[in-house]
Design brief:
Layout: E1 17-22, E2 25-30, H1 40-57, H2 61-65, H3 76-96, H4 99-108, H5 118-129, E3 132-135, H6 142-150, E4 153-156, H7 174-185, H8 188-202, H9 207-222, E5 225-228, E6 231-234, H10 237-240, H11 243-251, E7 256-258, H12 262-265, E8 278-282, H13 285-298
Parallel strand pairs: 3-4, 5-8, 7-8
Antiparallel strand pairs: 1-2, 5-6
Helix pairs in contact: 3-11, 4-7, 5-7, 6-8, 8-9, 8-13
Length: 311
């Protein structure tokens, strides 16, 4: 693994991998510019992890609830990547993570020296808020993702970025899922909002409405931020899982802070490949929770003033 001064960019490119099935075999197709493209060992482990997700997806809901998630085959180098990230991100969390995250991350107790298996983390999370985690091969349609949330299931990737670039990822990986999403899903209010987004999506039929709801999810439950004692703090997992994104969002002075407005937010374009130039900042975590809860509870109901959007 390269040292911490090499490959330090955390900017995330648009996902450049795809899970394929050829002749009954599962394999992950990586773009030539992916850091792990020429590493046969890495690609073999990615294929094994993708197979776990594909086979899991073929199970019934009842089978999933009664089956332990198979262990992902991580290497020593990959455990070292996790350890390097955890060492680098911990002091940044202390500076810029919201209180709810800091309190709950301690309860979750993710290990610092190895990648935790999804099954062990899911069991801990389920005891906290009832949420379970299940493996998925990569990005899924927002409808699929949100429907799972309505059932208290968070779909999680299990693969990790390539060891040649420990502080760079071309796609959402297990660091993003566990360090970001899982630690927040143990917060009862945050877990509730995820469920409500899922239920709102289930009331949504038009692609335009699904897209808009997904955009609100992006700006609130991926890249949300709030103020604590006058300081901007990271709330969303997209910020919390990246020390570079946190520092950029909370301390760079290069981000445009806007007052949250859902109707503006839902049509605001965003670029997944770069640090976010615009963030909607809530006056408090409690304000974010209360106002977002009200909005998603009304979404697609008779109380929603924009009924034409849902046709």
């Amino acid at each position: 693994m390269h040292g911490p001064t090499e490959g330090v960019s955390e900017e995330t490119d648009e996902a450049n991998s795809a899970v394929k099935i050829v002749g009954g075999n599962v394999f992950v197709e990586l773009d030539p510019d992916h850091p792990g493209f020429k590493d046969e060992g890495y690609r073999s482990r990615r294929n094994e992890i993708a197979k776990i997700a594909m086979e899991w997806n073929d199970m019934t809901m009842e089978e999933r609830r009664n089956t332990k998630i198979p262990h992902a085959p991580y290497s020593e180098d990959e455990d070292a990547v996790w350890a390097a990230i955890m060492e680098r991100i911990a002091p940044v969390h202390e500076k810029y993570a919201c209180k709810q995250y800091l309190d709950n991350a301690k309860k979750l107790g993710l290990p610092n020296d190895r990648i935790p298996q999804l099954q062990e983390v899911s069991e801990t999370l389920q005891n906290m808020t009832g949420f379970r985690q299940e493996p998925v091969g990569g990005l899924v349609h927002p409808k699929t993702f949100h429907t799972a949330l309505a059932n208290k299931v968070f779909l999680s990737t299990q693969y990790i970025r390539h060891s040649s670039r420990p502080f760079y990822t071309p796609e959402p990986d297990v660091v993003h899922e566990l360090v970001g999403h899982t630690a927040m899903l143990g917060v009862p209010e945050w877990a509730e909002l995820n469920i409500l987004f899922g239920e709102a999506d289930m009331r949504t039929n038009s692609e335009e409405a699904i897209k808009r709801l997904g955009t609100i999810y992006w700006f609130v439950l991926e890249f949300g931020a709030c103020r604590e004692q006058g300081q901007v703090k990271a709330v969303g997992p997209g910020l919390l899982s990246s020390f570079g994104e946190m520092e950029h969002a909370c301390a760079s002075g290069e981000v445009e802070y806007r007052k949250p407005n859902f109707e503006e937010m839902e049509i605001q374009p965003y670029d997944v490949t770069k640090y976010q130039p615009i963030l909607y900042i809530w006056d408090s975590f409690e304000e974010m929770y209360e106002k977002t809860k009200e909005f998603v509870n009304n979404w697609g109901t008779d109380n929603d003033t924009r009924k034409d959007l849902h046709k």
